[in-house]
Amino acid sequence: MDAQRPYQIHLDTRFAPLELIDVQALVEASRDPWYNQTLCRVNDCVVRLGVVQGQFHWHKHDREDEFFYVVEGRFVIELEGRRVELAPRQGMTVPKGVMHRTGAPERTVILMIEGAAVKPTGD
């Protein structure tokens, strides 16, 4: 964990095809303010779990779009000139090349779908 960016980001694919993924158990075990775990791979993409609170830094992904889906809590996506707040069961795609900063005013559980090569911290 970096003192300036206190994120726990795990890029290892935790679950293989046909293996049960218990998202709730992972959420309950998470103790970090910003936890990100790659759950599985689907073709050339990955599904990542985020258990987050606080604010991420401004960044962008030059070659890949990124999809966010809120399971519980509230998730904020700041774009240059626009702010979007997502509630449970809402999602949004941030297109490649778009500067964005994400955050959660309370402990929030999200799922992300993105290309397997995407670096969560940005390009």
Automatic annotation (TrEMBL):
Protein name: Cupin domain-containing protein
Domain Cupin type-2: 54-112
One Pfam assignment: Cupin_2
InterPro entries with a match to the protein in the record: Cupin_2 (IPR013096), PKS_Associated_Protein (IPR052044), RmlC-like_jellyroll (IPR014710), RmlC_Cupin_sf (IPR011051)
